[in-house]
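Fold this complex.
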Amino acid sequence: MASLRSMMPRLRHGWVSSDRIDRLAWRAGTCFDAYGVRVGVRFNDPALLEQLGPHLPPGWRPCASPEVDQIFSVWVSPRGARARTIGRVYAGGQRRALAKDLEQAFEVLESEIRQSVAAAARGRTFVHAGVVGWHGRAILVPGRSRSGKTTLVAELVKSGAVYYSDEFAVLDRRGRVHPFAKSLSIREGGCARHEVVRRPRAEDLGGSCGVKPLPVALVVLASHRPGAEWRPVTLTRGQAILEMLAHTVPARLRPEASLLALERAVARATVLRGERGEASAVAARLLEQVGESAGTSRVGAGARGTP
Amino acid sequence: MKPAARRTGLVMRDLPDELIVYDLDRHQAHCLNRTAASVFRGADGTRSLDDLGLLLGDGLDRAEREAAVRMALDLLGQAHLLEGGAAHSPAPKDLSRRSALRRAGLGVALLLPAVASVLVPKPAEAAVTCITDCTSQLPGTGCNCPSNSTPPPCQNVCFPDGTCGGAGFC
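Structure:
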């Protein structure tokens, strides 16, 4: 496991800083790199630095230089103070949240860092989507939170699929999808919490976490309606790219690279769109579909994906 | 009339039977089917409607070709993909895609132009669980969720200074 170095971050030359926030008495900080994005975090209480590790994005590495692209700051009220707001979280010069307790402050910080990395990652295109692996290929479930994406991912994992992410599909230039789950080295017990909301761990669902990048076999654009029967339509490649653009974090910032990654991701994939009812019924059908196209129709025990 | 399609401020990706066009000015993305893509590519300001119709192949007669070209230009104009907006003779009012489909056989229907569009979200909109705010909300009550998030209510609470306190999700 990489360890964080205590180092007060500063923005790279040419980046706009915030004097108002910079003037505060920051007493501890650190810098790291995630997906090519250099991030700094600073605190007014040095003890908080030790709690930061579990909240860093997957794949982070310590930086040797204090110069970063983004600075996040957490200011906490002095211990014993009777303040309603315990923590203030800043992204650059903007206050992002007033937190009622430290846990919430770290949750906001974690979420803010992840979103920042998702937008600015170099060589990767982040799509808001759940991902599982099955027979060496990926099933993507794009969608906004609360769209039922996590439920479907959980059912897929329960059915034997390998967990990759329920927040971001991380696409490389070849259109392969990489895992976005916290690395086993920085957390206890597998795929621990990786978003603001609490989620079950893959292990709790009887699953495991993927490691290798996978080509995409299936993209599922499903909206949940209780009682709905899963009768999806198959989208053309262009329609699929258009649908996925709506969930692609850097689409506005890097449209050319985003389009290329999406095009390659769906090049050999089936893309389905439709309403679904219960996730468990749909999950089995999706796995069956991918399994059949992979040369086997076995679903369940003995036919699990390869991490 | 010799229509001209936009050529600047766009990112394009050619697919086997479609064309993806990203409008850098409006941050809209469009998917053009083969017919719409043929008209878009051919509309260079030098071709007449007849000339553009010839680009659509042999599956249509002359009147159908002209109708398809006009329909494509309508759609391209609505998508802001023509120079000067939709400055061309509009398609006849009864020439909706639906009416054309009714009149045409399946083979011809496949040649009807289609343009699907989507507004590309800002990074935060695409990435974040949801963005909260406290517009019109009293202190101590739940924050507003954006209209595209489901379901309310937000678990976070508005503070007296109008900020939403919490983890930033609904």
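Chain A has six helices and 16 strands.
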